[in-house]
């Protein structure tokens, strides 16, 4: 029996290929098929470009690519131009007819996608776009652009707590006890939020949440860093480092004399980030707050004399 995850992906593939007309001989009523339209897009956005570069970019069989290129030449869409730096190589360039063909396909595809998005509105549309972007990032993390860090928006603190609960369950086997603690932290943050003394930052890539962190006011001019996390698809980009840097800068700017945090000895990646930002481990103690024996650590970063 087929795995349920495989079934779900195949079901979506069948739906989407039919929706975009991938099986149509004439894509969007043009002279091109979908593979031809994709190749034309790559030439238009990369020209001058060699066939070998296109083959690598598309993962296309060399023989099939050669036949498509020959078809484009026959239609008068492209020309081959000798390269100045390599007499054996030929660049592909669009002709005026090729640019017209590309413009028609590109316009019709934009219109078709616009019509598809027009079927959903408001938050549903935002959810759709985010879900599709997340799917791309999960399957190809390197395809994401540069991350940005911004203040939180409505609904995100609870989402952060829920997301961390899932991640810690999968990575360390921590269950409901962690979720209770994180939910209480975020609820208290929202209930008592003072933007002059506290903040939550969200890192995002192409509009998708990639990590987050909180700073809360502990009183006596001490701030606390809480709930730092980075999504697995977004790691090794420096996001954790940037989020902690925002916390340190904020606490210093607001006149706190120290920034403290509580973490676990097993969270080695986070501990390395804290150490790099000048935090020192000042106390360790065993506990079972997460439903199992763990060594907790209190770290401190002094900010003022």
Automatic annotation (TrEMBL):
The keyword Cytoplasm does not apply. Residues 1-137 form the HTH marR-type domain. The keyword Transferase applies. Residues 147-297 form the N-acetyltransferase domain. Keywords: Transferase. InterPro entries: Acyl_CoA_acyltransferase (IPR016181), GNAT_dom (IPR000182), HTH_MarR-typ (IPR000835), NAT_camello-type (IPR050769), WH-like_DNA-bd_sf (IPR036388), WH_DNA-bd_sf (IPR036390). This is MarR family transcriptional regulator.
